[in-house]
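Quick one, tokens below:
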């Protein structure tokens, strides 16, 4: 190295922000800047002439010599030990993590390696703390999910009993005060049921328990159903409701798409006090754009990013009295992700909001044979039978009692059983069951579908049945649709709903 270039190089290395070393072909240190002194604790000139391995912990020295020779042959600049944590050795014998990048300087006949060394102690500490914080947050999130799943699941049974008992009470209550008290009781139960159902939906989606059943389906029946469902609420608020019953067919899961649109319409009606809510559907290439538009209060632009978060409500303080729970749109977002759809929102405060869901359009053969077959199955009815003897199967004693009481109050003859085996035995003994009302999950691994099948086999006829379930997966619905005279109702079911389903089935 001639004098000028040597001085120049040393001056440049001295002014560098990192610890810089110049090492010659033999591995001896020719230059170390002041940061090396600060970092490694050796006096400024003490390192010159020493092998670079004095800065390397003893256990890595052998490998370091080999690596250094290898590096000289490769002739490429690169970070050292990429992907590994490297350690430096201080003069006092302590070690610390370092990041090193290497480059070659060739001034024939000399050859040098320049090493830039950075202390990684605080970087690694921050990374470690971040990692710990992330793990802590993950554990807290999992605990929340477990709590949500257990609490909502365990709340469902007592709610089911309460709901049926309140329905019975309404039928027995004499006098306007008693009836008013029962009405308030039923309202409270309905509100609680809505929350429990929403929590269950969130926890099931979170646990990946809902498996979509993607197929071609016509939108019109779903849209007509939604129109019937929301007409009353819109009328009650004095706002218009226009739902376009398009002839288009989509390719997705009809039940889950229904759940998305139901949540969007429910919000649109809830947050609108004048004007109208409209649902329109139009083609957009291979997709269908389903728009739920309202003329309601709108959402401030800075809040749009948060509305899909769980329990988030615009402008509502935690613990304040409020309508809704801030779960609807988080369920929508999870369903949209599950179905690989897209949802967009535009909104203007005081003018209204538009939520747009993009669905894949069904192929040309929109109404597939399968869809038609399903319609046919749904319409299939067994012959009506004259007598009204109900067979109840429910392994929860409180729910069994509440259901029996309700059905007896309504004038049905009821045989109550707590297991599939007992039900088959009692059905065979009596031989005249009109409808089986069974829980789906019966404990001991048995289920209501199998119980119904066994009873039908034992009686030799397709006995009508209602299955009560907390499970809303599409697979369940499909199983239900697969058999004629089989209805699936969701827990917690209101007394009126259970009785209406029963009457419908008996009249069919
Ligand atoms: P909530 O049960 O409170 O309606 P959501 O998760 O469905 O919960 O919605 C989250 C929040 O987004 C709501 O509390 C509301 O502030 C806002 N929001 C949702 N939809 C609309 C809408 N159509 N118009 C105005 N605000 C809306």
């Amino acid at each position: 190295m001639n004098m000028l270039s040597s001085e120049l190089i040393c001056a440049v290395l001295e002014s560098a922000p990192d610890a810089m070393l110049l090492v010659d072909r033999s591995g001896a240190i020719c230059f170390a800047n002041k940061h090396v002194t600060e970092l490694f604790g050796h006096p400024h000139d003490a390192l010159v002439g020493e092998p670079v391995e004095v800065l390397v912990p003893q256990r890595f020295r052998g490998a370091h010599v080999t690596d250094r020779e290898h590096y000289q042959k490769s002739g490429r600049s690169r970070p050292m030990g990429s992907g590994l944590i490297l350690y430096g050795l201080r003069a006092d014998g302590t070690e610390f993590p370092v990041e090193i990048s290497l480059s070659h300087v060739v001034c024939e006949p000399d050859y040098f390696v320049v090493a830039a060394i950075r202390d990684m102690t605080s970087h690694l500490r921050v990374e470690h703390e971040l990692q710990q914080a992330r793990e802590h947050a993950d554990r807290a999130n999992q605990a929340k999910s477990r709590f949500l799943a257990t609490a909502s699941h365990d709340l469902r049974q007592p709610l089911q009993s309460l709901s049926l008992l309140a329905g019975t009470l309404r039928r027995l209550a004499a006098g306007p005060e008693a009836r008013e008290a029962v009405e308030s009781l039923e309202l409270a139960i309905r509100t609680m049921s809505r929350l429990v159902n929403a929590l269950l939906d969130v926890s099931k989606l979170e646990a990946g328990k809902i498996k979509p059943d993607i197929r071609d389906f016509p939108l019109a029946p779903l849209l007509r159903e939604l129109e019937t469902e929301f007409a009353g609420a819109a009328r009650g608020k004095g706002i218009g409701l226009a739902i376009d019953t398009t002839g288009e067919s989509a390719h997705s899961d009809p039940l889950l798409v229904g759940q998305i649109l139901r949540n969007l319409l429910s919000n649109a009606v809830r947050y609108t006090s004048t004007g109208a809510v409209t649902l329109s559907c139009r083609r957009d290439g291979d997709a269908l754009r389903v728009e739920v538009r309202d003329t309601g209060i709108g959402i401030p632009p800075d809040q749009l990013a948060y509305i899909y978060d769980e329990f988030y409500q615009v402008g509502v303080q935690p613990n304040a009295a409020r309508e809704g729970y801030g779960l609807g749109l988080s369920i929508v977002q999870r369903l949209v992700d599950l179905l690989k759809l897209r949802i967009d929102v535009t909104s203007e405060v005081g003018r209204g909001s538009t939520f747009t869901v993009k669905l894949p359009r069904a192929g040309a053969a929109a109404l597939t044979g399968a869809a038609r077959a399903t319609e046919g199955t749904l319409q299939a009815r067994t012959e009506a039978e004259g007598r009204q003897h109900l067979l109840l199967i429910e392994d929860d004693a409180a729910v069994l009692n509440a259901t029996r009481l309700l059905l007896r109050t309504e004038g049905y003859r009821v045989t109550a059983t707590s297991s599939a085996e007992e039900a088959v035995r009692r059905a065979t003994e009596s031989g005249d069951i009109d409808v089986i009302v069974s829980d789906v999950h019966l404990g001991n691994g048995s289920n209501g579908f199998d119980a119904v099948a066994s009873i039908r086999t034992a009686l030799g006829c397709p006995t009508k049945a209602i299955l009560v379930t907390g499970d809303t997966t599409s697979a369940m619905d499909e199983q239900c649709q697969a058999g004629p005279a089989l209805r699936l109702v969701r827990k917690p079911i209101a007394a009126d709903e259970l009785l209406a389903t029963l009457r419908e089935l008996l009249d069919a």
